[in-house]
Amino acid sequence: MTDRLAVEGGTPVIAESIPGGMHGPSMIDEREIDAVTEVLRNGKLFRFVENSNVAAFEQEAAARLGVKHALMVNSGTSAIICALTGVGIGPGDEVILPGYTFIATAAAIVGVGAIPIIAEIDESLGLDPEDVERKITPHTKAIIPVHMQGVPCRLEKILSIAKQHNLKVVEDCCQCVGGVYNGKYAGTWGDAGAWSLNYYKVITCGEGGLVFSNDYDTYERAAFASEPGLPMWMGDSEWKNKPFSCQTYRAGEILGAIARIQLSKLDDILTHTRLLKKAFLAELSDNPKGYIRQHVDDPTGECGISAAIIIRDTELAKKYAEALQAEGLGAGTAYNEGFPDRHIYTYWDSILFKHSPNAAGYPWSDPRYKGEIEYSRDMCPQTLSILGRALRFGFNVNMQEEHARLMAAAINKVDDALG
User: Fold this and answer.
1) Which of 49, 63, 282, 296 could link 44 by a cystine bridge, Cβ 3.0 to 4.6 Å?
2) Which CATH class is domain 6-26+267-334+388-418?
């Protein structure tokens, strides 16, 4: 290897491709196959059966998280919808969320009849607490802090703001399953938390979600929200809240069976990815010339599935990305105007243009909503600036520590030359 950049004819740092793959899917083996086969053989695919896999997964996940209540549903989006319903969010309410999260977070807010209020992110790539405070109005009822790509956001500050303004907090942990913040699992600090078990997440059953909370009323209302109006668990005399008609977000036994096995592998996944990121950071320069590292409140608790650097300016970021690709490290800015990433608010057309499933234009036209909100593609300039300069790198269970060190070495080489 020479110091001459590969893009200028030098030898690339990374000679062979870095292994790719998804975390949970890469860990699938005979245990998941046997669990699914057993469900198919006994023919009991519905969750309300004796010795239910779904119920067992709920209990096992709750025990791991250290919470009293957990509810498995059919997606991460459903989990957020049920969590919002559980904490009492509905028509007329505003809910603050970051401009960097999958569109499903915003869709869930609309799904309960509330209004998404898009706030800036900061160098943590999570909610900017200062902008959260600016976005609070008399109509604000909740905040959804999103822990993106395995990194918990500035949760301590956000929780303080929520307490000061008497706001509910629903933590979106869909990309941070198993992440820890200051000694407690992400998702257990707020009023409710939500996991996704989608194919692309830390553990998976293909599609699925989990709602969890320490508050029984929140849990029961979330459970009612996952049923079409006639809960099939417990009896009328045991319900504390009146059942209400909602959607059907139930998960089936096949999903539950896979989820149980995947949950048992979570420690192995996170132990490996955390070692990868530790090796990456140890190799990465402590004195970079052209970038800063992503801010991480609690480095010991993050999932270790990603890292990001934020380049000094947009044009330089493009040069870094081009040079890194030549060195064998796939790279690109998080915000690229040529790629419609649905994780960035500027591509949420159904939200920005208030597309409604009904002619009346709900929830934005709901007479119970007394506020005013207009969206635009450039309404969060700080978010677009940061994402337009951020280069993200992923770590997965198919990689070894040497791969992580090579990734950092490539960044060091490019930074020495271009920074």
Assistant:
1) 49
2) alpha beta
Does residue 60 sit in helix, strand or coil? helix
Which of 16-30, 39-53, 233-247, 374-388 shows the lowest per-residue confidence on average (mean pLDDT)? 233-247
Alpha-carbon distance 338 to 52, whole Å?
Answer: 46
CB 68 within 8 A of CB 62: yes
- β-bridge mates for residue 70, sequence order: 212
| DSSP secondary structure string for all residues of 201-220 | SSS-SBS-EEEEES-HHHHH
What was the pLDDT predicted at 243? 82
What angle, 0 to 180 degrees and rounded to 10, lies between the N-to-C axes of helices 103-111 and 76-86? 40
Mean pLDDT of all residues belonging to the chain: 96
Residues with Cβ < 8 Å from 350, sequence gap 6 or more?
A: 103, 107
Please give the CATH number for the structural domain made up of 30-265: 3.40.640.10
Per residue in 117-151, pLDDT (tens digit) is 999 999 999 999 999 999 999 999 999 999 999 99
Q: Where are the domains of the chain?
A: 6-26+267-334+388-418, 30-265
Alpha-carbon distance 1 to 413, whole Å?
A: 10
Return the pLDDT at 3: 84
Phi, psi (deg, nearest 5) at residue 148: -80, 135
Q: One-letter amino acid identity for 337?
A: E
Cα separation, 385 vs 373, whole angstroms: 22
Residue 19: both structure tokens together: 């292994």
The radius of gyration of the chain from alpha carbons, rounded to an integer in Å, stands at 22
Query: E strand or H helix at 106, and its extent?
Result: helix 103-111
Q: Is the pLDDT of residue 255 over 60?
A: yes
Contact 223, 233 (CB under 8 A): yes
pTM of this structure: 0.96
- List of E strands, 333-406: 390-394
Q: For 324-355, what is each residue's pLDDT tens digit?
A: 999 999 999 999 877 889 999 999 999 999 99
- Give the separation between CA 131 and CA 284, rounded to whole angstroms: 31
**What is the 3 state secondary structure string of 236-293?**
HHHCCCCCCCCCCCECCHHHHHHHHHHHHCHHHHHHHHHHHHHHHHHHCCCCCCCEEE
pLDDT tens figures, 99-115: 999 999 999 999 999 99
